[in-house]
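Give me structure tokens for this 228-residue protein.
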Amino acid sequence: MSDIRPPTPEITIEEINSTGTASTLKELFFWRRTVTMPFVQSCRRWKLNGSILHLECLLADGHTWISTNFDLNSCIGNLDGRLSWDSGAFSLSTRQETARIEGTVLVGECKRAHSEDYVETRLDLATLLRNNDGVIVVLAKNGGHDMKPSSGAGPDFSDFSAHPAVHAAMARIAQMTANHVAKQMAASMATAIADATAAATASAMGYTSQSMEAMLSNIGREMAAGVD
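Here you go.
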């Protein structure tokens, strides 16, 4: 099976700001990523072992491949002798020796309901399976993402942060957060300076008043002594 490098996955950054009172000012950022890639273009070397699909998936960086697996029983079932996305546990009523992968198509002999008959049936995995940065997920029939994780250990997502779009978005969030912190610090410093100035002014006025009283008292005593 030839390796086909898929286009760079689309990454969407959604940013929402919300502001509270001055004392509880917060800037909240919500970001969402969409990195699902077509099954055929981003998966290779797949093989079936029982109900487990073993394969290699391309990460969002566009060049790193990792080994992963996905349990087809989690999303494919037997509906009266027909493989279907509408249920699960297809292997329980499918002859194991007949279950196989032909291209991207799952093939097997499935048992009919209320019968001992088995019927060969097919289901194209590429229809709804997608690669989400190294994890196989199921595309919901309405076009959304069911996002069912693979049964194996998940891949290392450290490469995702290196994507230019994510890096730029995180840098923007960091800058806005820094600006917000700077504004809070400036406001706190202004309040502290105002309080300190008021305290210093009050202290200075008190000291001046005491000094004036002492000076006037001395003048009064000197004048009284001169009269005597």
